[in-house]
Amino acid sequence: MDRLLLLGMNHTTAPLELRERLAFGAQQRHEALRQFTARFQKCELVVLSTCNRVELYASRPVHERPREEELIEFVAECHSLTPAEFAGHLYHKVNRDVVDHLFHVASSLDSMVLGETQILGQVREAYAASASADAAGPLLNPLFQRAIAVGKEVMKQTPLAEGRLSVASVAVDYARGIFEHFADKTVLCIGAGKMAGLMLQNFVGLQPRQLLICNRDAAKAAALATRFGGHALAFEHLDDHLVAADIVLTSTGSTRPIITRTGFDGLRKRRRYRPIFLIDIAVPRDVEASVGEIDGVYLYNLDDLQHVVSQTQAQRTGAIDAARAIVARHVEAFIAWHRQRELGPAIHRLYSRYHAIAQDELARTLNKLPNVTPAEKAHLEDLARRIVNKLLHDPVQTLRHADADHVSATQYLHALEKLYQLNEETEPPPRN
Amino acid sequence: MPDVPNAAQLALLLTAMAIFAAGEVLSLARLKWDRNGLRLAAKACLYCGVLVGTGVIAWHSIDRGSWLPMEDNFDTLIWLAVLLALFVAYTQRTHPLRGLDWFMMPVVILLLAAAAVFGRARPREYLDSTWSWVHRVSAYGGAAVFAIAGAVGAMYLIANHRLRAKRIAPATNLGSLERLEHITVLSVTLGFALLTIGLLTGLMRALRAGNRLGPQWYAQPKVILTFVAWVVYALVLHSPINPSFRGRKTAMLSVLGFALIIGVLIAVQWMPRNR
Question: In 3-state terms, chain B is what percent helix, strand and coil (to 5)?
Answer without folding.
Answer: 80, 0, 20
